[in-house]
Structure formats: structure tokens, C-alpha cells
Amino acid sequence: MNNLKTTPLEIFLEPASIAASSENQIPEPLKRAFGGKALQHQIDVFEAAKENDIILVLTPTGTGKTKSSFGVILQNPQRNVVYVAPTNALVEQQTEAAKQFVKDASLPHVVKAASAKEVKAWPDDRVGKRSGEKIYNVLLNPATLFPECGGGRPILLVTNPDIFYYAAFFQYNRQDRSNIASVFYKSFATVIFDEFHLYDAKQLVSLLFYLAVSHVFGYFQYNRKVVLLTATPEPACEAALKTLEIDGVRIDRIDGQRNTENLIPSQTGVNLAIRSYPEKDEIVREIVWEVCDRLEKRPDDNGAVILDSKDTLNAIAKELRDRGYKNYCGRITGDIPKEDRLKNAQKQVILATSTVDVGFNFDRKIDRDRQNLDWLIFSSRDRFSFWQRIGRVGRVLGKVKTDISSDAIVYLPEDAWQQGLQDFDLSGGRKALQETLETLDCLQRPFLEIYWRSEAFLEIARPLLELETDLVNTPGETFISQLYHTLQTLLGGGQDWQYYRKRMKVLQGAENISKTSIEKIQKDWKYIKGGQNCVMSFLRAYYPEDLEAVKSGHVSIESVEAGICKRRDLTEKLKHYATILQTSYAPLFRFRDSLFENVKIEDPQGFLLDNCGETNLDPLHLLRFYEFVSDGDRILVLDRAKQTYNLSFFLKVADLDDFKNTKLAKLYAFDNLQIQRNLGEIVRSTSKTAEFTSSLIPGVVVKEHLKNRWAILKLKKQGLDCYPLTVSDYSGREDNYTFFPSLSGILAIAAAGFALKCPDNEEFWCV
């Protein structure tokens, strides 16, 4: 039950409006493209694009931001466009929207979707099977793959942030990475990033890197236009954009508030109840009661439940199904197949996860004269998702009836009350609530600046080094130091370019050595790019006296390399070191971070799916919340777990003392970590857990003690993944630790203030 500190609050959010325009105000190009109708902010975006390089569109959810971004294409009507949509579902949706816009505006563009699935389906017979090669050829000459693109027609490519990241950060395979990066940097006159507030810290780095390249290499001078779409801008990203502005980049911000005339309703008033997030069983009971009550008392109203916890949502779905409401409710989660999502969207009550946060408009086949969503129950972990989700209820733009209020209930972290939520003026409406949420630490994203100041520069060193290699002995070579300085100004790093250049060359060598066989290393050592840099790092870690001899000139590095290649044991040790080093840093060079690949499960009883069938599932979710059996590749879900399992790891080492002395509080890749699930102190093993264990898992192991316990607790509350780890050796001794896997390890050490050491004893982070 809620106590006094978390007394539920009730506030009325006044109706919202947006400025319309008269037909004679619409510029002629927009008039044709928009069918003679446009909102004022859509005109403002079009006009802003004439004189600015970057246009930040900040209008509320559901007021036509996407359409306004398409209008910018009209400033470069004969040149290539890339539209970056944050999910594959939105890639499909915006591809269709782009095709309609191109048709309405009589533009020559050929519109192509480029998710991994789409690219794989492109024909192999003309340019080969590699994804990077296909994308490169489509951008270089679309007619190579698509004959309908003949005659030099430009392309409008709709893709996702993953492909954009891997292209711009030289992450495709060696045969394609320079080619595809080149066309991504040079080809597009209009670049649109949709819903970029959903990007995490490292994903924002790739966006800012692209903007910095566009500035330093002069692409804005050739009329490149970048459109950033978000209803909830990230303050740290706004600060970075202001830095670019000071450096000469022309930036305009359109929020839809410039014109207060000719206003039309965009959202109804909302009766909002604010509650603290209770225990799982209690929130299930509360929400089930609220849904049933509305279905009984307001049978004509449509509603939705949007929660961050998929397991809690599935528990609610089961309770509603058991009470006879199965036909009234439909789930929309990442597990639900596309065809079922479309069908479930027509149900009276939609039960959803964050899947609907982007590009899902709760449209109905039978159009209503009032809002499509009358009530909403949702949770929110940060103020960005709060405004995104509250903006889903009561949308009335273009509707006949606009004066019927909507209802909403939001569950916020209990810390919000302790940080002053209960003190704000409930009569102040939207503005007062917005100002209050911005002051609550528990609703912020704490790791953005920490990440930028710790590891962003090592991540950007890779594309910088690739660009430097491509530009060597050309006039553009001087741009690299200028580009690094711009990025340093944006992100705030303390080391110079040569430091990160050296570190990246070591990692390049480690990557190449780790992929090469022992025999080939010994035979063709001099052809392994970056190998010498990695050997110097290897000596620093294991043979410091030999390193000093090389530095002093008493022996040559070439003779040391030759000695290593002559002895198989040393070659194997070097390869092992390179593999550990490369795997340790791998999370920095992945757009999305996960411990394990998803597994295919069968759900005959509908625990995850409304219609029984197969879906892909995160193994960690499966292990925590379900009972299952496995038979080869077949995993059959039998039941929901009666109690949620806790997950932990177990590691066997040769000597516990050596582990303590060499592996704690440093980034490392651990071999044969075994995942376990537990109820209390009891380990509940399954035959499948061993198959979920990767050969090497990167992360940081920390020993909890009195001096750091507060920091570990804080990191857990801030949402960083961590697990208990038991380490034992062959003599039977064991000890307990905390394991922060993958990127969480990097952020944990940076945030907690530890001097994180690398496998070669280099300091890993800097402020």
C-alpha cells in the first residue's frame, strides 16, 4: 500500500493545441506535397531549412513531425535522402509514408527500406551476398539492384540506427567498410533522425559524430540538411548542439509555439493520477481492477496499458483472460508477430510494452469522431517516456469531438516523492508538472555525460583512424585533428588525439590477431595490420622488462616479434591476450548491447502470445520468469514461474588469490562463466542454462565492501545490470563478488569513480 510519503496525486492537464495555417500561407512546394493543408510548424520547418543546417523539431507527439521532416526534402528535390527510424516496425511504416509523400510531391526518388531483413532479401545475383556490398551499390547506383531506378533517379533510404551506425562507424567487414562509410558521409543531402531521444548515450555519440563530420568536412556548405525529430530533447544533447552552433553550424528549433493564432485542438484535457510503483503482485491487482472497472462502467471507451515490465504486463494479460476478457484485450509486445499486432490494435484494451512508444498511433479501422484512446495506464522510468506516453491518450487532431476529457494513471518510482514530487502546485497544469519532473533525479538519464567523458573517445577513435587512413597524403588529412578537436569540444574529453589513436591501433591489432590462426600468425606475421601495436601492449602486460629494452633501443621490436613467432607457446599466449583484449572492448563497438542471442521458444499456452505459436525471446527473461523444457533446439514454455528467479553467475578459476590480484575492478573477458537461476539460496539449474553461456563474457568484477557498498547500491537503483558472482578454485576455496557485464561494467566503474584498468594496465577512462 502507498504510505504518506507516496500519497497518490491528482492533476488536470489542460487541453493542448497546435497552430494551423490558412491555404494562402502555405508555400507552393508544400501546398502540392501536403494536399493544400499544413500546420504552421510544418511551414516553419520548411522555411527554417532554407537558411539552417540542422533543424530540431520539438513539437508534441502526434502533431505531424514526420510530415514536417519530409517537407525538408523539397529543399534538395533531386538528391539522396536517408530517414533513420528507431525500430524495424517504424522502418516499414515510414517507408510507406515516404512513398506516399514522394508520389504526392511528384518527386523523382525511389523509396527503399533497408532493415537487415530487407537488405538480405535484395537480390544476390548482381553484386554478391554481403549486406555492406548491397547497400553500397544501392547508394552508388540504385539501378544496379533495382532497374526501376534507372535514369539517375535519387534514392530515399529508410533505415534503422543500427545500419546507420555500422555504416558511419566503419563496422562492416573489411571489404566494404570504407566504401559504405564513404557513401553514407557523402551521398545524402537530407538526413532525418526520427525519435532520437530514444538513443542511449553511446548511440547519441554516433549521431553527434555524423554531425561533426558534416560540419568539419564542409557538407553543410553543399546544402546538406539534418532534421532531428523529438518531443523530449535530451539536455546534454541540446548542450552539444549549442556547441556546434557556437562553432558556426546554423541550427533552428521548431517547437510549434511560435504562433498562437488559429489554434486547433491536438489533445484533450487529461485527468491524471500519479501513483508510486508498488510491488509486482499489487500493481497487477490494481491494474486488473482498473481495466475491469472501465470495461464494465464505460463499455464504449478504448484504453491501453503501457508498462516497462513485460512480465508484469503478461501477468495482467493472464488475469484478464482468466476473468473472461480475452476477446476485449490484445497484447502488443516485441514477442507478438506483426500480423497479430495489427489485429490486437483493434481490441478495446491494448496491453503494450515500450514497443508502442515509437510510431504506433492507436489507429482504428473504424475511425471515431473523438479520440482513439480514452484512457491510459502506464509506467515511466524517466521524464522522456512520461511525455511520450501521456501524449498517446486523447489525441484529437483532425477529430470532430475535441472536448471529451481523457483519463490516465501513471506509476513513477517511489524516489520521486522523496525528491519533492508531492510539493509541486497541482493547479499549475502541464507547465508545472513539466518543470517538476525536470528536477527529479530519479527521472533523469544519469549515464549520458559519464559515458561521453569516459569512453566515447575510444569509440570514435575507430572511425577517426579509418578516415585518417583513407585521407593520408591528401589535402583532407588535416581535417582529422580539426574533427577530433570539434568532438572533444562536444563531448568534453581530456586526452589528445594521439593518445586515442595509439589505443585504437592496439585494438585493431588485437582484433586482427584474434581472428588469425596460430600457423598463419607464425608464417605471415608482418602482414597482420596493427600487430606490432598489440605486441607492445602484450609486453606491457606480461613482459615489462622486454618492453623497456625495446623502448631503450637495446633490442628491436622486430626481433621480439620474431622470437614470439618462433615459439608456439608464446604465439598462443599472444593470441589469447589479443582475444581477451578485443572481447573486453567489443561492447563499445556495438550499437545495441546484450549478453546472449535471443532463442526461439514455443508458447502453446499463450503465456507470451495471444495466439499460440513461436517467438524469439531473451534467454534472461526466459530464465527469470518461466518454467520450460528443452529438447535439442526446441524450447517449450510450460508455465509462469511461481516466484521470479534471481540470476547469478559462477566461475571456476585455477587459483582464487591470482583472480583477486589480477581480475578485480578492471575490464576483462571471462571464460566459461556459467549462468544460474536461484530461489533464495537454492540454485535451480536447467539443462538449457549451459547453452546460454558464451565462451567469453566481458565485464567488470567488483568485491563489495564497506567503502563501496553505497556506490554499488546506487548503481543498481540507477538501472545498471549486475549479478552476484561466485568464484571458486580447484582447492575448494570460494568467494562472492558483484559482476557488471558488458557495457554496464564500463559505466559502473566510471560512475562510481574507480580508476578502471584495462587488461594491459592502461587507464581506461578519463575525465
What labels describe this entry?
767 residues; alpha/beta; Rossmann fold; 5 domains; seven-stranded mixed β-sheet; seven-stranded parallel β-sheet; 29 helices
In short:
The chain has 29 helices and 27 strands. The chain has 767 residues and is α/β, with parallel strands linked by helices. The model has no long low-confidence stretch (mean pLDDT 88).
CATH architecture of the largest domain: 3-Layer(aba) Sandwich
Count the DSSP helices. Answer: 29
Model regions low in confidence, pLDDT < 50 over at least 5 residues: none
Overall number of strands = 27
Distance between the termini: 43 Å
Overall 3D form: globular
Question: What portion of residues belong to β-strands?
Answer: 15-25%
Radius of gyration: 28 Å
Helix content: 40-55%
Q: Quick one: biggest sheet?
A: 7 strands, mixed
Overall mean pLDDT score? Answer: 88
What topology, given as strand order, has the largest sheet?
1-11-16-15-12-14-13
Structural class: alpha/beta
CATH topology of the largest domain: Rossmann fold
CATH homologous superfamily annotation of the largest domain: P-loop containing nucleotide triphosphate hydrolases
Count of separate structural domains? 5
Description:
It is a single chain. The protein has 767 residues and is of the alpha/beta class. The chain has five domains: 4-11 and 266-426, Rossmann fold; 21-261, 3-Layer(aba) Sandwich (Rossmann fold); 451-585, no CATH class; 590-643, no CATH class; 645-767, no CATH class. 40% of the residues lie in helices and 19% in strands. The protein has 29 helices and 27 strands. The protein has a seven-stranded mixed beta sheet with strand order 1-11-16-15-12-14-13, with helices on both faces. Helix 13 links the parallel strand 13 (329-332) and strand 14. Helix 20 (497-514) crosses helix 22 (531-542). The radius of gyration is 28 Å and the shape is globular. The two termini are 43 Å apart. The model has no long low-confidence stretch (mean pLDDT 88).
